From TrEMBL:
Domain of life: Eukaryota
Signal peptide: 1-25
CDD domains for the chain: cupin_OxOx
Gene Ontology CC terms, in alphabetical order: apoplast
Annotated Cupin type-1 domain residues: 64-212
Database matches in Pfam families: Cupin_1 (PF00190)
Keywords assigned: Apoplast, Disulfide bond, Manganese, Metal-binding, Secreted, Signal
Protein name: Germin-like protein
One annotated GO molecular function: manganese ion binding
Subcellular localization(s) per the UniProt record: Secreted, Extracellular space, Apoplast
InterPro entries found in the cross-reference section: Cupin_1 (IPR006045), Germin (IPR001929), Germin_Mn-BS (IPR019780), RmlC-like_jellyroll (IPR014710), RmlC_Cupin_sf (IPR011051)
Residue positions binding Mn(2+): H112, H114, E119, H158
Length: 223
């Protein structure tokens, strides 16, 4: 009987946890209609402090610019225009963000992760090859055309590459007001202070001189 009671109690606790909003959303769940970010507040919280509702306007919920092509005249041939809580204060506490991705022919959005958000990408112009790498090393990738969508699970390394002959454009939805961005190559070869050469040489199975050469390229790109 005692074991049966313990099982019932465990099931009740599990049900309560599963039904809790905190278990269903990664970002803080809103407790009011909106909490427009007050960027001038000195208060440090997980997100942004709320602006006084009497000072809120429609402009706090609007963003202009996703119709404008991003500048892809860079080494990667890509540009991401992010619409997060920093760009739109009204997104604060709502747990969502979006982005426009522009890729020149042959352009690449290099392997990266969003530590706080899953992502769904919809191609609106051109062609892309997009994919992510699962924790066991399996690559899931697909060729996408206008109207196609692809999902990237939260925290997994993923990329987009323009495999077509003309510029490509995608619109992404992200499950956090502040998804975060960690570019794989930048984070290991462009870190400051530097990651030890021997650590990277052993991790990537290359020699220390090659590590130094790669680091020099990242250092030059920051100047």
């Amino acid at each position: 009987m005692a074991r049966s009671s313990e099982l019932v109690l465990a099931l009740l606790v599990a049900a309560m946890v599963a039904s809790s909003p905190s278990a269903l959303a990664y970002d803080p769940s809103p407790l009011q209609d909106f909490c427009v970010a007050d960027k001038s507040s000195p208060v440090f919280v997980n997100g942004h402090a709320c602006k006084n509702p009497t000072h809120v306007s429609a402009a706090d919920f609007a963003f202009a610019g996703l119709h404008t092509p991003g500048d892809t005249s860079n080494a990667f041939g890509s540009k991401v225009t992010l619409v997060d809580a920093h760009a739109v204060p009204g997104l604060n506490t709502l747990g969502v963000a979006m982005a426009r991705l522009d890729l020149a022919p042959g352009g690449l959005n290099p392997p990266h992760t969003h530590p706080r958000a899953a992502e769904v990408l919809t191609v609106v112009e051109g062609e892309m090859r997009a994919g992510f790498v699962a924790a066991d090393g399996t690559l899931f990738a697909a060729a996408l055309s206008a109207g196609d969508a692809f999902v990237f699970p939260r925290g997994l390394v993923h990329f987009e590459f323009n495999c077509g002959a003309r510029p490509a454009v995608g619109i992404a939805g992200l499950g956090s007001q502040n998804p975060g961005l960690v570019r794989v190559a930048d984070s290991v070869f462009g870190a400051s202070p530097d990651v030890d050469d021997h650590v990277l040489a052993k991790a990537f199975r290359i020699d220390a001189d090659t590590v130094k050469m790669i680091k020099a390229k990242f250092a030059a790109s920051k100047k």
